[in-house]
Specification:
The complex is a heterodimer of chains A (212) and B (215). Chain A is α+β, with helices and mostly antiparallel strands. Chain A is 32% helix and 16% strand. Chain A has helices spanning 26-37, 45-53, 57-62, 65-79, 85-90, 104-113, 168-171, 188-192; strands spanning 119-120, 133-135, 155-166, 178-187, 199-205. In chain A, strands 1, 2, 3, 4 and 5 form a 5-stranded antiparallel β-sheet that branches. The two termini of chain A are 28 Å apart. Chain B is mostly helical and 215 residues long. Chain B has 12 helices and 4 strands. In chain B, helix 4 packs across helix 5 (74-82) and helix 5 (74-82) crosses helix 6. The radius of gyration of chain B is 20 Å and the shape is globular. The relative contact order of chain B is 0.14. Classes of the chains: A alpha+beta (212), B mainly alpha (215). Chains A and B meet through helix 1, helix 2, helix 4, helix 5 and helix 6 of A and helix 1, helix 2, helix 3, helix 8 and helix 9 of B.
Chain lengths: 212, 215
């Protein structure tokens, strides 16, 4: 299947525009405000990410970043029945009572309350310990996953264990299932055949590894 | 109503949206805003206030205060390395995308650099909105494969003796780089130190913090 978002290691994008500001256009800041304040994201965080991943690949590659957010917020709202395609394209027939505005202070205080804990207790012990070598799987699963393509079928060393965290592949299907989460350090030699001694550390769930 | 969690359904909606909406992104965002206001989902003033809040009160200055505190308070430094999410909560900087924050420290031998190759995960409540380059395809694609070439574009020349550790934010963990405290800043106040800490140094695309312009 196409994975237009799985960019790690791909070539052909040219140099990094190191001086680009956070927002180049007013509509980008507006979209950021909409995404954080309109209760459209009715599903899990990984269902939202999977929505972006299910844009047509040529659209994903060509539209600006915050336009992807806009299109996906619209798609998610329609998918969850919060509004309809007709209301979007033809206008709302019954205007709802206005929502009360939030002050800057209320929004500021709300940021603190917006932290989400993804850690969950595990019923089974972790199969790997810090210092162990792990080998990642090679089969590309159908649907959402957070194992990047460039790290598939690669060996790395466990450098941290974080307990049980919600498993994103299940989260994208609406299921709350924790799995053991580790940070694995891969050498640039294992990933790219580059012996310079640099490394890439990736947060990976136990289901992404071959059995010990 | 709940989400369908049906990827074929979301793909179909995306296709329809892209072909029916006007091509200008500003008009697409305007369409979402008008719809959200008419459906009573948000007030326009809330959106205005949010933009102002992130422009003025929530930004990299928060991260800079965390770093300056860590440089001057060994106990806080230890707490930051042990559990950065808890440590930033002491300063009331916890929140959106910072619950599972990890601090990684630069040394004479290690340079840390943060990316999210699969989307653009970022510790918003500590660093504010991410710079556009952080979300760009070029940075996401290249920083894991040729970090030194990317760093060179940012003006960072690393000797071979310094190894690069790139952190790809694939889970709900978020990473904050602790840059090295520059020489010649002994006795500086936390405020003066915070003034020299840059956003890019906390992402890892800057290494040596200049003292120019500092007080």
């Amino acid at each position: 299947m196409s994975r237009p978002h799985d960019l790690g290691g791909q070539d052909g994008f040219g140099k990094v525009d190191v001086n680009a500001p956070p927002f180049s256009h007013g509509w980008e800041a507006r979209q950021w405000a909409l995404s954080r304040n309109v209760p459209i994201r009715a599903g899990t965080i990984d269902w939202w990410r999977h929505g972006v991943e299910n844009m047509q690949p040529e659209v994903y590659a060509s539209v600006p970043y915050f336009e992807k957010w806009c299109l996906n917020d619209l798609a998610q709202g329609i998918d969850a029945g919060i509004f309809s395609m007709e209301e979007l394209l033809q206008g709302v027939t019954v205007v709802a009572p206005p929502r009360p505005a939030k002050s800057i202070q209320e929004l500021y205080d709300g940021i603190r309350r917006s932290a989400v804990d993804y850690q969950r207790p595990m019923a089974t012990p972790a199969a790997f310990s810090i210092g162990d070598m792990v080998l990642t799987k090679t089969e590309m699963p159908v649907g959402h996953t957070r194992l990047p393509g460039y790290a598939m079928g690669k060996s790395g060393t466990v450098i941290a264990y974080h307990g049980g965290h919600l498993y994103p592949d299940a989260g994208a299907l609406g299921r709350e299932e924790p799995d053991h989460l580790y940070t694995v350090e891969f050498t640039s030699e294992a990933l790219w055949g580059d012996a310079r001694g640099d490394t890439v550390c990736i947060d990976l769930w136990e289901q992404y590894f071959e059995a010990p | 109503m709940p989400s369908t969690y049906d990827r074929d359904n979301i793909a179909r909606i995306h296709k329809e949206l892209h072909s029916h909406l006007p091509p200008d992104p500003a008009l697409r965002v305007k369409a979402l805003e008008s719809l959200a206001i008419e459906k009573g989902l948000v007030a326009q003033e809330t959106l205005d206030n949010w933009v102002e809040l992130y422009a003025n009160k929530v930004g990299p200055m928060r991260g800079a205060q965390v770093i300056a505190r860590a440089w001057t308070d060994p106990d806080f430094h230890a707490r930051l390395l042990a559990d950065a999410g808890q440590a930033v909560a002491e300063l009331e900087f916890d929140g959106h995308a910072s619950a599972h924050l990890k601090a990684v420290e630069n040394t004479g031998e290690i340079h840390n650099m943060v990316v999210c190759t699969l989307c653009s995960c970022y510790p918003f409540s500590v660093l504010g909105m991410s710079p556009a380059w952080y979300r760009s395809a070029a940075y996401r694609a290249r920083s894991v494969k040729e970090p030194r070439a990317v760093l060179a574009e940012f003006g960072v020349a690393l000797p071979e003796t310094v190894k690069v550790r790139v952190w790809d934010s694939t889970a709900e963990l978020r990473y904050l780089v602790i840059p090295q405290r520059p020489a010649g800043t002994d006795g500086w106040s936390v405020e003066a130190l915070a003034n020299i800490v840059t956003r890019d140094s906390m992402i890892g695309t800057m290494r040596d913090l200049p003292l120019l312009g500092a007080t």
